[in-house]
Amino acid sequence: MATSHESSGNSSRSRSRSDQQCQVMCYHGEIAPLREVKYNGPTYGKKFYGCSYWPRTCGYFKWADEVHEIRDMQMRLLEKDIEIAELEMEKGFLEDKIKRLKETKLKLDDVVEELSIENSEIREGLYAAKADKRLLLGLALSWIFFLLYVLIK
Questions:
Q1: DSSP at 5
Q2: What is the band of 143 on the pLDDT scale with cuts at 50, 70, 90?
Q3: CB 81 within 8 A of CB 63
Q4: Whole-model pTM?
């Protein structure tokens, strides 16, 4: 881990591995190094990000704690965006499933309708068969009574 210190006036320039992981860019599009206030005053020792071309600066300046708060908020926002994307994907899957279930329901409704018609036809056939059976039974009984009448006479 290489650390370089460069002092110019009241601030110093330093880089570490953790600083490189959370790179802050200045308005030049360069990595803004993490610096520390070196002059005595209320902000002594406070860390900040400034332009890498200091003292010929582009005007970029952010306190390190502000950058970390912004990053934390960006991470929370990213997590929420990911959660929203996952929920939207799940919503899409569920909508597709609902569509397939509705199509299946329509097909099953058609099958139920066909079975109901078939059931009605079978019942009508059974009722007709029962009526035919009763007629045959009536005819057979009438022949039996006729034969008995003829035999008795």
A1: -
A2: very high
A3: no
A4: 0.43
For the beta carbon of residue 67, count every other beta carbon within 10 angstroms. Answer: 17
What is the spatial distance between Cα 51 and Cα 147, in angstroms, rounded to a whole number? 127
Backbone φ and ψ for 51, nearest 5 degrees, come out as -60, 140
Evaluate whether 9 touches 55 at the Cβ level (below 8 Å): yes
What are 121's two structure tokens?
């036809």
Cβ of 72: how many Cβ atoms within 10 Å?
10
Mean pLDDT of 53-60: 80
Residue 3 region, left (φ>0) first, then alpha (ψ -120 to 50), else beta?
beta
CA distance 33 to 2: 14
43 CB-near residues (< 8 Å, 6+ apart): 37
Q: Tally the residues of the chain.
A: 153
- The β-bridge partners of 11 are 8, 37
